Amino acid sequence: MILSDFKHTDIFQILKVSKELIISITTFTIKLSLFAFRLLAWTAKSTYNYVMK
After folding, report:
1. How confident is the model at residue 7 (pLDDT cuts 50, 70, 90)?
2. Are 12 and 6 in contact (CB under 8 A)?
3. Cα torsion angle, 30, 31, 33, 38, sign
C-alpha cells in the first residue's frame, strides 16, 4: 500500500480527526490552566492589598 492509497482509508481519516481532537483538547486545557493561574494570582494580589491597607 502506498501513501496515496493509505490517505483514502478509514484508518487515516480516524487518525486525522484524532490528531485534531487532541490538539483542540490540549489548547483548551492550556488556556484553562492559564486562566486559573491568572485568577489565582489576581486573588492573591487583591487579598494582599486588602490585608495591607
Report:
1. confident
2. yes
3. positive
